């Protein structure tokens, strides 16, 4: 659940960025959009990474 909630802003930001790419370039705001993208991906990884690690740990323990 946390994964899907934190992944949604990534998809929406990406879609908005692609649709407004010419405007972003015209006003030279690439860095701002890149920074926002990094922040949203980091927030998603904070929820996904522990799940991946615990899943791998459990798989190793069950071998």
TrEMBL record:
Sorted UniProt keywords: ATP-binding, Membrane, Nucleotide-binding, Transmembrane, Transmembrane helix, Transport
Classification via InterPro entries: ABC1_TM_dom (IPR011527), ABC1_TM_sf (IPR036640), ABC_transporter_C-like (IPR050173)
Family matches, as PROSITE patterns: ABC_TM1F (PS50929)
GO cellular component: apical plasma membrane
The ABC transmembrane type-1 domain, residue ranges: 1-63
Highest taxon in the source lineage: Eukaryota
Gene Ontology molecular function, alphabetical: ABC-type transporter activity; ATP binding
Name of the featured protein: p-glycoprotein ABCC2
Origin organism lineage: Eukaryota, Metazoa, Chordata, Craniata, Vertebrata
Gene: ABCC2
